[in-house]
Amino acid sequence: MRLFIISIALLFTNSILAQGIEFFHGTWKEALELAKEQEKVLFVDGYATWCGPCKRMARTTFKDAEVGDFHNSNFINVKMDMESKEGRKFGSKYPVQAFPTLFYIDKNGKVLQKVKGAQPKKNILDLGRKVLAKVDYSQDLMKEYEAGKREPQLIYDLVKALNKSNKSSIKIANEYLRTQKDLSTDFNLKFILVAASQADSKNFERLIENRKKIENLTSKDEVAEQIEKACYNTVQKAIQFESEDLLIEAIEKAEENLPRIAKSFAIESKLSFYKAMNDAPNYVKTSKLYSKKMIAKNSKELMKLAGILANDFTYDKGAKKLAEKLAKSACKYEKNAQNYIGYVGILAKNGNKKEALSVAKKALKLDINPSEEKEINRIINHLKG
């Protein structure tokens, strides 16, 4: 029985967590504009519809949750059919000799990295990290700083670049601010804005104290965005140091200063923290609130949450039970083959073979295509075997 459950769980893991990379829907020109707006690198999958390795990579590497989280956070992701009209136009500037060809292109259209052939998870994550290191503008600025240059604009640019590269800027920012007799100048107020990189810091307090002045110099949206980033960074710090006190502080700062997003921030921060801490009871408790308040009828998000509960907390009865409930709800709100396959996978993983078989048979009655029908019949045969 145990071997049966393991084989079924392996069969359905990709279906349950098949979120992966979220690709941009739009033209190449629009993707470039978005990259400039968000100051991100573009990741381009140059593929052909007939290409076997392209299809395999789309089914596996691109569906991986870790690959998806990394790419969705750091890149503008584009799928480019190189034989389409848009693809041929793209190919005139970025030639392709084999499929797939993967490109990493900066916001100005310069190729930072190009690699041929399908890539496994480890390779593509390593490639992405190398590319991000190439666009780390803090390195050159840091060399100037270490050489003794202390022009205010250089320090401002350095702090900003360090923040963007997810490196600590606190020490350098504080060194500069300690030399300033008047923190109320326009430049220093703008400096405080970029220096407030964490909610549990003196510079964050300075930002809040001078919020209206800084908003007048920049904008309300820019200040709100920085406050949100600072709170998020403190949540990451809470995870790093396994400190629930820091988590609570980040949530409280968001409640005080960003009431519009405070509830969602609190729930999502707790989910991140309790998942990282492998705290099943609190993760389940927060998941119930999240599913009720934020994703009640969103079948995709319900199934994603169900997959995390089923795969990351396999030892916890409450997590397993909630995973089944959420997957069932996802099927209720959107009756499609993938939701049913995900639900069947969770039931099978939990050892509920009889119910899994019943749900799989119901899936055959849906409006499905031939390949989905073949997949479901394959699942039924596994369950019967």
Characteristic terms for this protein:
21 helices, Serine Threonine Protein Phosphatase 5, Tetratricopeptide repeat, Glutaredoxin, single chain, disordered N terminus, 385 residues, 67% helix, alpha+beta
Provide a short characterization of the protein structure.
With 385 residues, this protein is α+β, with helices and mostly antiparallel strands. Helix content is 67%, strand content 6%.
Structure explained in plain terms:
The chain is α+β, with helices and mostly antiparallel strands and 385 residues long. The protein has a 4-stranded mixed β-sheet, with helices on both faces. The chain has 21 helices and 4 strands. It has helices at 2-16, 28-38, 52-59, 65-74, 85-93, 121-134, 138-146, 152-164, 170-178, 186-195, 202-209, 211-217, 220-240, 244-257, 262-276, 280-293, 299-312, 317-333, 337-349, 353-363, 370-384; strands spanning 41-47, 75-81, 101-105, 111-116. The model is unreliable at 1-18 (pLDDT under 50). 67% of the residues lie in helices and 6% in strands.
Radius of gyration (CA) equals 24 Å
Let me know the largest β-sheet.
Answer: 4 strands, mixed
**CATH architecture type of the domain at 13-134:** 3-Layer(aba) Sandwich
Strand content: 5-15%
Q: Unreliable runs, pLDDT <50, ≥5 residues?
A: 1-18
CATH class of the domain at 13-134 reads: Alpha Beta
Q: How do the helices and strands follow one another from N- to C-terminus?
A: HHEHHEHEEHHHHHHHHHHHHHHHH
CATH topology title of the domain at 13-134:
Glutaredoxin
Q: Order of strands across the widest beta sheet? A: 2-1-3-4
Number of helices: 21
Q: Class by helix and strand content?
A: alpha+beta
